[in-house]
Amino acid sequence: MAEEIKNKNGLVLLDFWVSPFGQRCRIALAEKGLAYEYSEQELLGTKSELLLRSNPIHKKIPVLIHDGRPVNESLVILNYLEDAFPDAPPLLPADPYARAQARFWAAYSDKVYEVGSRLWKTKGDAQSQARAEMLQVLGNLDGELGEKPFFAGEKFGFVDLALVPFMPWLMPSFERYGGFSVAEVAPRLAAWADRCMERESVAKTLYPGDKVDEFITLLKKKYGIE
Question: Per the UniProt record, which EC number(s) apply here (predicted)?
Fold first, then answer.
């Protein structure tokens, strides 16, 4: 059982294979070189007692268990890793203002998933509104990235790993449901996604867009969405 697993860092990650929020944590752990035990959770059926006990408020993944104590919510987990393992390679910049900006844009990146989910769950005016919102979100992210290789500059970091797990959802699924092309509306962001995929931590964690598309189709069938 996951509770009984021991490793030198005392870390167990409760997760679900296609979750972009869990993938954030997996990429961060890889970038920091931290060993951990992975515990795949059932989200579409009966949830495990371990998950319900570890996250009784939201009852969802990801949950990072460190020496028996749970930490919930992906961005909270990323910040926790910064604090709990100060000797590991940092994800956040040293400057306080730059750190604040990184946290802001990492939180903002959640809109890609939130708005994108409305693209495949809705039709008509609601879908048109979601499309307009998505184009604005992508434009804002593309503008913040600018001509930099990564959001913090030359180095892959906090905002990059927070945002990049949404890319296989965005391309091709959100694109198709929204009737747009990321390469056309946010070309710098599209090129950035390709650069991120060259990193081992990202390439080994993310699934191809067609696998994500299959999962979205499964969700549509489960929830009776035509």
Answer: 2.5.1.18
Strands of 63-66's sheet, edge to edge? 37-40, 11-15, 63-66, 69-72
Distance CA 46, CA 44 (A): 7
Residue with tokens 């990184």: 102
Distance CA 152, CA 199 (A): 16
pLDDT in tens, 33-71: 999 999 999 999 999 999 999 999 999 999 999 999 999
> Which stretches within the chain are classed as H helix?
20-32, 49-54, 74-84, 96-108, 110-121, 124-145, 158-163, 167-169, 175-178, 182-185, 187-197, 200-203, 209-222
Give the chain's domains with CATH numbers. 2-84 (3.40.30.10), 96-222 (1.20.1050.10)
User: 143-154: b or e for each residue (b if 16 or more CB lie within 10 Å)?
Assistant: ebbeeeebbbee
The residue behind tokens 């020496």 is 67
Taking the C-alpha atoms of 32, 50, 103 and 148 in order, what is their torsion angle to the nearest 10 degrees?
50
Give yes or no for a contact between 41 and 61, defined as CB atoms under 8 angstroms apart.
yes
Q: How do residues 101-154 score in pLDDT, each as one tens digit?
A: 999 999 999 999 999 999 999 999 999 999 999 999 999 999 999 999 999 999
